[in-house]
Amino acid sequence: MGVKGLKFFVSRHAQPEKLNLTELASKAPVKLLVDGHAFLFFLASRSGIDFAHGGDHEDFAIYLSQLMHSFCDSSIHLDFIFDGCEIQKKKATIVERMKTRIVEQTAYLNKKQTRTTKPFLCIHVGYFSIV
Predict the structure, then answer these.
(1) Which residues contact 105 (CB under 8 A, 6 or more apart)?
(2) Total-model pTM
(3) What would the DSSP string read from start to end of 45-105?
(4) Which of 10, 80, 81, 109 reaches 20 to 30 Å from 38, CA-CA?
(5) What pLDDT is stored for residue 77 in this prediction?
(6) Is 64 exposed, middle or buried (0-12, 13-18, 19+ CB in 10 A)?
(7) What does DSSP say about strands 121-124 and 127-130: parallel, antiparallel, or unpaired?
(8) Lowest-confidence segment of 59-63, 68-72, 106-110 by average pLDDT
(9) Which residues neighbour 131 within 8 Å (Cβ) at sequence distance 6 or greater?
């Protein structure tokens, strides 16, 4: 869910700069605070492991372990934050995002269809509607 307005704030005020963490860590240990879910999503998408069919969790665990050891060996210490808010508190936001995605995906798919006589049935995580 994230912090409301954080992405906008960062995009407006951040000054992008590439940092060589290994070089920085050679002078003094580096400690980073990391969004745990975003980090796992990033790694899963770039690991080369086939997650389309459920993924191989053992291979991913090995990949993650090797990566964490590489960071530690380079004096780069990562602290992870995982958003632990109760699902009930997020339910309204989740439902609204699902509805928005359904509308966007349906509009996109309907543009691609050559026949426009039938509405497109969109199914998403147990929720469905005819748009």
Answers:
(1) 122
(2) 0.52
(3) HHS---TTTT--HHHHHHHHHHHHHHHHHTTEEEEEE-----HHHHHHHHHHHHHHHHHHH
(4) 109
(5) 92
(6) middle
(7) antiparallel
(8) 106-110
(9) 102, 103, 106, 110, 119, 120, 122
